[in-house]
Write a structure and sequence with these properties.
Helix content: 25-40%
Shape: globular
Structural class: alpha/beta
Radius of gyration: 23 Å
Number of strands: 20
Strand order of the largest sheet: 7-6-5-16-17-18-15-19
Largest sheet: 8 strands, mixed
Number of helices: 16
Distance between the termini: 33 Å
Length: about 525
């Protein structure tokens, strides 16, 4: 159904709505669903030909499809699942294992929710990992209290904000003075020091270092890098913190499930509808003009796209003030992860990995030093000759991604700086060669089965998914760009200096990943303000 067909099916003037949502990614669709369920007349404007945002799949070789940037689910919020009735998003069976690959084929395998049990390590190491896991899960749980609600406004702390602070404090008090000291000691530590404190196995230390820095421009020995692991461990799947899964039918089922929920709630979805300008009059947003000149009016505009695209491309900067424009322009949002999709003529086999564990995620990060050394060149605009990466085989969960007998491989590769010295046009072939040689060492014969491939750099992600800087979190997940400073202090908590304009993307609190929380919390705030 085309955009015009959708407009004709509505029972109201297509030019006038209660809310206009710009961006049909999962956060925009979540916000649209909640608003529509509460009786608002909502239209979602998506510039691409289909919804889903970074979950939007594409054919990268004849007969072979990629399901998008994400290849596992590890933080889809239960409230979002319930709100949208995302039965299609439920895990099919057990949680996915994580295989920490070793060059000698003797791998460590984390099972359950982030290593509830571990295969391939000594009993002493398993016990040490369990102690570290318990500590980090508890500390991440304290931070999670603040991620599940709108961040407090500095100078305007409300009663329910005090309740959140009190609950966090009570959690620490009940654990004793030593636990409280440990939380304050570790909060801004680097992940390498924490891993060294507990573990001796390089495979486990490398995995923890990788998970803390994936998608973040930090190395494991960078101060505050532990925050990245905390953030990962605030996510949950199937009621289990730290768990990961692939939905029934594969990752490609997620985007249609979000869209179905929005349309079932009554939202109108217009694809191929490129927002060109947000209209504002004397500090109040009033509507949106599309690239084709069409004008839509609404008292509420919800931008579920990158904050820099919202403020610097769609808004008249004269309506915002120089301070906000400067702050938004300074958001650190340059991606450093590349995505490789391989089309294979047969299922690959990684040495020492069981057939069942091929359905999980396979991580190449031999040690903390390996991750740190892979990061170091990125500081100077270069990629590593020895990258670290996370690998999945998506066609095992979704056979329709490949023709009969074929298979697909997806790899998230660190570190791939957005501003590559010499440019990606020149650098991409060399980086791709390095990645394939690395994969070949762990899956001998893989290179002979490749029939097609696509390497997507941060610059490519910027173009394909309209992501300024190619950063899938819409901004670094670092201490100065979280909570009351996400995306910037003047536009935190989903409100903006333009009355009626709200933010609801990964660039807003609490951040990126397939959670739906920015969209959910933004819509709740809009309803509370405009009930």
């Amino acid at each position: 159904m085309t955009s015009s067909d959708l407009a004709r099916t509505t029972n109201f003037n297509a030019a006038d709505f209660d809310a206009i949502v710009i961006g049909g990614g999962h956060n925009g669709l979540t916000a649209a669903t909640l608003l529509a369920q509460n009786g608002r007349r909502v239209v979602v404007l998506e510039a691409a030909d289909s919804t889903g945002g970074a979950m939007r799949g594409f054919e990268f070789h004849p007969g072979y499809r990629s399901a998008g940037l994400a290849h596992i689910v590890n933080r889809l919020d239960p409230e979002v699942e319930d709100l949208l009735k995302l039965k299609a998003a439920k895990a099919s069976g057990a949680f996915l294992p994580t295989v920490a690959l070793s060059p000698d084929g003797r791998h460590a395998v984390l099972r359950g929710a982030y290593g509830e049990t571990i295969d391939g390590v000594s009993p002493a190491e398993a016990k040490a990992f369990a102690a570290m896991r318990k500590k980090l899960m508890f500390q991440a749980g304290i931070l999670k209290r603040f991620l599940k609600r709108r961040p407090p406004e500095i100078g305007r702390i409300k009663l329910n904000d005090l309740g959140t602070f009190a609950g966090a404090g009570l959690s620490l008090i009940t654990k004793g003075r030593e636990e409280g000291r440990d939380f304050l000691r570790m909060l801004l530590m680097n992940v390498a020091d924490v891993a060294d404190e507990y573990l001796t196995d390089d495979r486990l230390k490398g995995l923890v270092a990788f998970d803390a820095t994936l998608g973040i421009h930090l190395g494991p020995r960078s101060p505050t890098s532990l925050l990245g692991l905390y953030y990962r461990l605030t996510g949950e799947t199937g009621g289990k913190t730290g768990a990961q899964c692939v939905p029934q039918g594969g990752m490609s089922t997620l985007a249609p499930a979000f869209e179905k929920a929005a349309t079932a709630a009554g939202a109108v979805i217009r694809t191929g509808a490129h927002a060109a300008r947000i209209l504002a009059d004397r500090g109040t947003a009033t509507g949106v003009v599309l690239a084709n000149g069409e004008q839509l009016n609404a008292p509420v505009i919800v931008c579920a796209i990158h904050p820099q695209a919202t403020f610097l491309s769609l808004c008249d900067t004269a309506e915002l003030g120089t301070g906000l424009v400067r702050a938004v322009g300074n958001i650190r949002s340059k991606g450093n992860v590349a995505k490789l999709d391989l089309a294979l003529d047969r299922q690959p086999a990684f040495t020492g990995v069981s057939p069942d564990d091929h359905r999980g995620r396979l991580v190449i990060a031999r040690s903390i030093a390996h991750v740190e050394n892979a990061f170091n060149p990125a500081k100077y605009g270069e990629f590593s000759p020895d990258p670290v990466m996370e690998i999945t085989l998506p066609s095992l969960a979704d056979p329709e991604l490949a023709p009969p007998g074929g298979a697909t491989l997806s790899a998230l590769v660190e570190f791939a700086p957005y501003d590559l010295k010499g440019g990606w046009d020149n650098g991409k072939p060399a980086f791709e060669k390095i990645i394939l040689e690395t994969l070949e060492r762990y899956a001998p014969g893989l290179s002979k089965s490749i029939v097609g491939r696509q390497l997507m750099t941060p610059a490519d992600m910027e173009t394909q998914y309209h992501l300024p800087g190619g950063h899938w979190h819409h901004g670094e997940l670092q201490a100065d760009q979280l909570l009351v400073n996400r995306p910037v202090n003047a536009a935190a908590g989903y409100t903006t200096p333009l009355s009626g304009l709200y933010l609801a993307s990964a660039g807003s609190h609490p951040g990126g990943g397939i959670s739906g929380l920015p969209g959910l919390l933004a819509a709740r705030h809009i309803l509370s303000e405009r009930s």
